[in-house]
Design goal:
This protein is α+β, with helices and mostly antiparallel strands and about 140 residues long. It folds into two domains: about 1-45, N-terminal domain of TfIIb, CATH 2.20.25.10; about 45-140, GMP Synthetase, Chain A, domain 3 (2-Layer Sandwich). About 30% of the residues lie in helices and about 25% in strands. It has three helices and six strands; from the N terminus they run E-E-E-H-E-E-H-H-E. The strands form two sheets. It has a three-stranded antiparallel beta sheet, with no helix packed on it. Strand 1 and strand 2 (about 20) form a beta hairpin. Helix 1 (about 45-70) crosses helix 2. The protein is globular, with a radius of gyration of 17 Å. The termini are far apart. The mean pLDDT is about 95.
Length: about 140
């Protein structure tokens, strides 16, 4: 595998700590959300950061697929809903639902483009077989 880009981030203090990327662009405190016993929802958390990364990556993959397919669409959008879940063994996992909008094409074509993007998106490839990912596709 040929490496095209690498970035590092360091966390200290776990889920109630601090994260910083090596270039300093990300430099922020993270906290447990209220739903997980935190004091408030005014701080980012790991699931929020994962949702931002996955949605951006998937939308990028979707636009590559659209370009290669030579299809004209409106502006696409992807919203990632990332859930922190307890599994039946008492451990923890994440679940993902992606709301994918591909306007300007039929529902069937939007679905096909989203499924192709799911095959090439690095986040989808990294999570495949490990994380339940549901695709909700619209063409509005």
């Amino acid at each position: 595998m040929k490496t095209l880009y690498t970035i590092a981030a360091t966390a200290s203090g776990g889920r109630n700590g601090h994260v910083k990327s090596e270039n300093g662009i990300i430099d922020l405190d993270v906290r447990h959300p209220k739903a997980m016993g935190g004091a408030n929802d005014d701080y980012p958390n790991p699931e929020m950061l994962f949702a931002a990364g996955y949605s951006a990556c998937f939308d990028g993959a979707l636009n590559v697929v659209i370009k290669k397919s030579r299809v004209e669409t409106g502006e696409t959008s992807v919203t990632a809903h990332v859930s922190f879940c307890q599994n039946e063994k008492g451990g923890f996992e994440i679940g993902v639902e992606l709301d994918i909008n591909v306007p300007g094409v039929s529902q069937e074509q939007a679905q096909e483009l989203a499924e192709k993007a799911h095959q090439v998106c690095p986040y989808s490839n990294a999570t495949r077989g490990n994380v339940d990912v549901k695709l909700n596709v619209t063409n509005k």
